[in-house]
């Protein structure tokens, strides 16, 4: 089986909650950057990817581009966050969704909008010598808070997935409650679409959603429409794959199921040729 993975940082949530919301005091536990995701910059030849640091309270934007002489050059831009980030996910071109928890214990989801990258030409020293390579920079045009809530059941955002059938919506899973929600970025409405446990609200239950999975992905399958799934890498969490179907690609999830590895392969989901597009 071929897996395409994005490393997520939500496993830090339980430890952070146990410490209250003071600055994390165990560097070994919180070191490193999590959740690489691509960021499309419209109309630009500069390529960008993004990761984040929970303990460092920052998002890093990695920029790379081709110099006039054909060589590749890159640099990293650091952007501070007002909270401890637990998930980042690119959205539309030049847009990034950043979620985290504040020092007051509030869950916050922001939409960041980026401007056009600024790249200066190399500086050639008088008299010769190696050129000086300037850094590129992509300005953050705005940071808009879309969601701020202090519900203990929705404190840490574990996963964010784009709704492929509705460009202004995303699917959100929280670490504690583990239900799957649809979040409209325009109306900022949050609606529960699948529950992790039986409930009296009539929300359908997704088998396996209660588990603590590490990876969330989505794709456009040639036969089965838009699919969204969460899972863990072998030996890095619970087995099985929880998959959500949007068969008619209308932006509404039609059903869910839990698959094992052999059934995943039997559905041709492990064959890259069966996908029109794969991604976050």
Molecular structure report:
The chain has a 5-stranded antiparallel sheet with strand order 16-15-14-13-17. The chain has a 4-stranded antiparallel sheet with strand order 1-2-3-4, with no helix packed on it. Strands 5-6-7-8 form a 4-stranded antiparallel sheet, with no helix packed on it. It has 280 residues and is mainly β. The chain has one domain: Methylamine Dehydrogenase, Chain H. Helix content is 6%, strand content 41%. A hairpin with a 5-residue loop joins strand 10 and strand 11.
List strands and helices in order, with pairings.
Layout (H helix, E strand, L loop, with lengths): L12 H6 L8 H4 L3 E6 L7 E7 L4 E9 L5 E9 L3 E7 L4 E7 L5 E8 L25 E10 L7 E6 L6 E6 L5 E5 L5 E5 L20 E7 L3 E7 L9 E6 L8 E5 L1 H6 L8 E5 L1
Antiparallel strand pairs: 1-2, 2-3, 3-4, 5-6, 6-7, 7-8, 9-10, 10-11, 11-12, 13-14, 13-17, 14-15, 15-16
Q: Which spans of ≥5 residues are poorly predicted at pLDDT below 50?
A: 1-32
Spatial ordering of strands, largest sheet: 16-15-14-13-17
Structural class: mainly beta
The CATH class turns out to be: Mainly Beta
CATH topology heading: Methylamine Dehydrogenase, Chain H
- Give me the count of strands: 17
Quaternary organisation: single chain
Mean pLDDT: 84
Major sheet details: 5 strands, antiparallel
Radius of gyration: 20 Å
Mind telling me which CATH architecture this is? 7 Propeller
What overall form do the CA principal axes indicate? globular
